[in-house]
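re: the backbone from monday

yeah here it is again, tokenized this time
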């Protein structure tokens, strides 16, 4: 029976079928491209299937087509651990908690801050982007997100409009990875002003929708903020145009450690 066949043999056969037919068919579609996993992930022992199942659970229609973004998080979480970059994690724009859970399970020993209204956009933030009101993102709740993320470890959810909720963060808090998915100009601009000074040297600012074209306020806020900073914006070829900035380390262009603003 097939259940008795070695797992490695079955994996080789599946990869062969994908290479012979699936890759060419997807690449010819015009909207999709098949890419090999990073080689270290493709080796035996790394359970990519586990992370993929978690990633697509809440929004399979969208997230099955955005695995490049999942791989980006897996890669950069590994970098933080490998390089010993200390600090908490934060997400602004949690929605249903897909990325929050991923970060929490990838880096369970780190404090995770979650900022969201958990009720959709705040009307005050829609002033510059009224057309965004057609996308409510209100089919969620704080309780549902916390159930999904899990109740282990140090998860701190701050419900309300950002940066009004930022007062919960201690003055000496330092962040190793911050994920911004607020969609709109004002909360993105406020988050950059708040988190950048608190970002550890070598830490990551990950900004969703920077290059999507659908949420132009994000790119406007990011471009304006980093026009006067030493770091460069790196685009990630995922579905919605994520961008990453990595905080300069000591000795790089004379910039040092993260310090909270006065």
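seq for it, each position gets an aa:
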């Amino acid at each position: 029976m097939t259940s008795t066949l070695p797992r490695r043999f079955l994996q080789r056969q599946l990869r062969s079928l994908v290479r012979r037919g699936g890759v060419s068919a997807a690449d010819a579609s015009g909207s999709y491209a098949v890419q090999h996993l990073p080689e270290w992930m493709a080796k035996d022992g790394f359970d990519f299937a586990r992370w993929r199942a978690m990633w697509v659970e809440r929004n399979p229609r969208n997230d099955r087509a955005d695995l490049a973004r999942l791989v980006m998080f897996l890669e950069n979480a590994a970098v933080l651990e490998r390089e010993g970059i200390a600090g908490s994690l934060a997400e602004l724009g949690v929605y249903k908690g897909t990325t929050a859970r991923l970060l929490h399970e990838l880096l369970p020993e780190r404090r995770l801050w979650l900022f969201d209204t958990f009720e959709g956009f705040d009307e005050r933030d829609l002033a510059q982007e009224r057309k965004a009101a057609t996308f409510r993102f209100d089919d969620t709740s704080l309780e549902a997100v916390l159930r999904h993320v899990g109740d282990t470890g140090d998860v701190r959810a701050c419900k309300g409009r950002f940066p009004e909720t930022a007062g919960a963060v201690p003055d000496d808090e330092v962040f190793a990875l911050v994920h911004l998915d607020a969609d709109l100009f004002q909360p993105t601009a406020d988050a950059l002003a708040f988190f950048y000074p608190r970002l550890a040297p070598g830490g990551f600012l990950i900004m969703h929708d920077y290059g999507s074209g659908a949420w132009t306020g994000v790119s406007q806020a990011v471009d304006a903020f980093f026009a006067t900073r030493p770091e460069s914006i790196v685009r990630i070829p995922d579905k919605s145009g994520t961008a990453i900035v990595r905080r300069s380390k000591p000795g790089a262009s004379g910039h040092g450690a993260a310090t909270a603003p006065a």
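The first strand starts at residue 88 and ends at 92. Residues 1-34 form one domain.
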